[in-house]
Each structure stands twice: as C-alpha cells, then as structure tokens.
Amino acid sequence: MRELRWRGSHAPEDGDWIIAEVPWHGPAQLVEVLGADDRPEWDDATVASQFRLRVSFPRRAEEEAAAFGEPDARARKGREDRRDDLVVTIDPEDARDHDDALAVRSLAGGRHEVGIHIADVSSYVRPGSALDEEARARGTSCYLPGGARPMLPERLSGGLCSLREGADRLALSVLAVLDDAGRLHEYRFAACVIRSRARLSYEQAQRALDGEAPLPGGIQEPVETLMRLARVLRARRMAAGALQLESSEVKAVVDERGEPLELVRRPHLESHELVEEFMLLANRCVGEAAALRKSGVLWRVHEPPSARKLGELDEMLRVLGLPRLGPAPEPHRALQALLAVPLDPPKRRLTHRLALRTLPRARYLERDLGHFGLATREYLHFTSPIRRYPDLHNHRRVHAWITGERDAAWDPVENAALAVECSAREQDATEAEREGTRVKGLRLLAARLGDSASGSITGLVPRGFFVELDDPPVDGFVAVSDQLDDRFDLDAAGVRLVGRRTRRRFTLGDAVRVTIARVDVPARECDLALEQEHGRGGARRGASVRKHQSAERRPRDGSRDVGRGSRRSPGGRGWR
C-alpha cells in the first residue's frame, strides 16, 4: 500500500474517490478529489474528470472576457442596424447560451427574406488570444445534469454573445430570400446589430402554432410564416433524399444538491423542426460560398455506410420480420424508404435504432466529402459559435468575406489537425453527457432495488442481453445464461439468443419484465433479473445474478458506443 500525500488544507475524506499520480517508487501525489460516491453533488465533477473536461478558465481568459462591455456605437459602426426587425429566439426552456435568432419579412412577388442571425463570437474571441486558446482546447460546451461546462466564460457564453431578449447584440447573419415553395433565390451575409423581441421556448412556440396560446406583440404571424417556410424546406430536403431518423433525448432533472428527481424523454415538437430547417439552410449557404471561395473552413462530413454494414442491416431486418431495405440503387433512398414504412411504435423505434447503428459517425474534416444523412454536399457548421469551435473557426472566414478582406493564408495541415481535435472533443463531450445522465438514472434505480420494471431488449451478447427500462429510461444487463441455467447461442445476425436446453428465445426489441437486482453507481453498472414463474426454465421469479467482466459482453450489433467498460446497451451515433 502506498502513502498518499497532498498540498493544502483540503484533505480527502474516507470514502472519497480521488485521482492520484502513482510513481514507480515513493508516495502517491493527490491530483484531484472527486468526492464520495454517495454524494450526488459530486457526480458532474466525477464525470468531468473521467472525460478530462476542463472545468475552470485560465485567469488570462477570464480577464479578456471581463474587459468587454455592452456593444457601443464604436462596436456597432459599419454594421447593418436590424434592431427594428422583429427578431425572436426559440430555445429549450433552460437555455442560457442563445446562439441563434430568426426574423422574417415579406417581399414583393410572394417572396420572404428570412434573417438567420448568429451570435458574432468572432468579434470577441480573436485568434491567438487566451480566450481562443482555451476555446480550442475545450472544442465544445458540455451539458451535464447539474449545469454546463461552457466553451467560453460565462461573461460571453451567457452574457455578451448570447442573443438575449431586449439587449443589443452583434450578429453575423445569413439573409436568405425564399418563395412560398421553399426555393432559395438569393442569399447574402451581413454583420448586423440586432435586438431580440422575445425569448421563446420550444414548448411556448408549439402552443402558439397549435393555436392554444397565441403570441403577443405581433410575434404570432412571423412565427407562423417561419413555420410554413420550414415545412416546405423540410419537404424539399426529404425529396432530395435526406434521412429522417428518430431518436429520443433523455434529460436528467436534478435538485440543487444534484439529487435526481426524474429522467424525462424530451418530446420532439414541430417547433424544433422550425429552428432546425433554418439552421441547416444557413449552414448550406455558408458551405456553398466557402466552396466557391476555396476557403479554409472546417466541413461537417458524413460518409455513407459500407455495403457490408447495409448487408448486415438487411439481414437483421429479415430475421426480425421487419421491412427490408429494398432494391433502391442509392443507399440513402433505400434507407429513406425503410424509415418511411408505417409501423407500430415499438417496431418503429427498433427499425430506427438499427438504421442509426448502421451509419458512421459524422465528423469534421478539412475537405468536403459530402453529408450522407442530409443528402447534400458543401455542408458545414456555422450556427453555434458559442458552444462549438468549428463554428467559430468558420465565422472568421465569413467575417472576412463580409468586410472584403482577402482570405488569410491557411495551412491545410493545420486545418486537418484542427478537424481531428474538434471531432475528438465533440465525441468526448457527447459521451460525458450520456454518462452524466446515466449516473443520475442509476441513482434513481438504486432506490428501487427489488422493484419490478418493464423494458425492451436493446442488445445481445452470448451471456445475456441489455434491457432499456421504460421508466426511468436506463439500461441494465440480464445474465440470462446464469438465471436459466442454460447455454445460449447468438444467431449469425446478432439479433436473437436461443437456449440449447430450454430453447428459450430472446430477440432484439422483445418486451420483458425484470427485477432491479443490483446497482453500482461508481462502476456505472446495473444488473437486472428476468422475471418468470417457478418451474419455467429452472429458475425462480426475480432470480439473482452474478457479476461478470464487461469485456465478455461486447455487443455484436455493429455498435461501437458501448462505453468504457460499463454495462450498458449500445447507443446511437451523432450523424449531423
């Protein structure tokens, strides 16, 4: 056993989880105290440390942010004054960083000018500054249950850059002219100053669109116009072959002490699609201009699935008795047709989950390879510069176009390295957010040991299967081989387990009832016991389970999002 040493007065307590440097010889040195596993207020810090998220800003970066004041006449000079436009933001209810805002006005001939206003972060975060160095090191904001780990200090992310209601804000804007059929006739970029008239939540905008609670102050009509244009834009994208994949987002609701109150599935609303369509439009406009200028932007690329992956998907669908891919000559058309088949909700969720696992992860790249999921080329990220570094990088190019500056020299090797960095940071943040939610879900389950729950099978390995519970939506593992005293074989398609002795079958997507048998929050593990009556399969109702090494449980369903040694079902992938 090694001696542990530390500096300062903050000594670790018995039961605390810590990070320490352990040399070959001599005492270990304390690096960080993560807290006790029975204190939920430490959960976010533990996850942040696990994924090496940066949790504090260097003093120089904080000082640079603090030096900025509200936009004055000097800051507004040379910008288009759009403060009289009826501009609104639509975001989650608890959002603090408002990257984007929308406005629309009617033109002659049945056309509309849509103002897609994006926070001008590039006017505050200059290349080579301490703010820029820290933003690049973080790569993206990360949203954990207890709060955000922002890419920029609060002074900027939640203050001067955030498009707050009633505040003058600097924006880089895409001004797009559309007709009623959603055809894009022209667009231009402008450095503007705007003032949001209303901060709307998605739920509030949806109630207004449904006619349940009309918006005051003349805002209702512009929001309805934006929704009408968004619908035709979406229809045009679908006609071009874009995929419409459904995946539910789970949010952990916690109190001020980090104690989980509930896990909720965020509903998908049409108001989400309103914002999404105009963000996609802005990204495509900037991408088209960047391709013409051969500018050093970072592209958002999504490569098509391999023929092998598509073949595996088709075989899984066949074995499960679900609709097949069909003979469409283009992969995105075949997938689009599959996803459009009307199915009952459980089968629809399973079909979309399998299709999502077939797709590679979208990433950043220094050259354009196209975006399979969106069925487009010349696509990049521009609309979230407060929370994504690639967007900030691309903003600097657009800023140069607006001012008429000659594009600064850019190094393709440096751009390639930046793309790899940003992709890695994005993946770390995504996994950290999932982990943060999972920890809170496990804490909820820890209070329900022995309770019965319903769920569905989401992944299979020879020793058993993963189940995602219906409420709360947390996944756990059923070691069915031990419970039923049988050896199970996984079929060639990886979608069904069959017992050699009992001939019991467990298939991907099956509804099951289980007992919550064991929860280990620090290890991120949840063991479930299959519920059954005496005399069936040689096991009793709620049979207990034994612990197994997670390395034996690697799913064979094409997913690589199993996690770092944790017992969890295969997740989906970021494809946009």
List keywords for this structure.
single chain, 576 residues, alpha+beta, 31% helix, 25% strand
Q: Strand tally, please?
A: 23
Structural class of the secondary structure composition?
alpha+beta
The stretches of 5 or more residues where confidence is low (pLDDT under 50) are 534-573
Give the end-to-end Cα distance, rounded to a whole number of Å: 48 Å
Percent of residues in helical segments?
A: 25-40%
What is the typical, i.e. mean, pLDDT? 89
Strand % is 15-25%
**Quaternary structure type:** single chain
Compute the gyration radius: what is it? 26 Å
Number of helices: 14
The shape, in one word, is globular
Major sheet attributes:
6 strands, mixed
Blueprint of the fold:
Elements: E1 4-5, E2 16-21, E3 28-36, H1 43-50, H2 59-66, H3 73-76, E4 80-81, E5 87-91, E6 100-107, E7 111-119, H4 130-138, E8 142-144, E9 147-149, H5 154-160, E10 168-179, E11 184-201, H6 202-209, H7 220-240, E12 249-254, E13 260-266, H8 270-293, E14 299-301, H9 307-320, H10 331-339, H11 345-358, E15 363-365, H12 389-403, H13 412-446, E16 452-461, E17 464-469, E18 475-478, H14 480-483, E19 488-490, E20 496-499, E21 505-507, E22 511-520, E23 525-530
Parallel strand pairs: 1-3, 4-11, 5-11, 18-23
Antiparallel strand pairs: 2-3, 6-7, 7-10, 8-9, 10-11, 12-13, 14-15, 16-17, 16-22, 17-18, 19-20, 20-21, 22-23
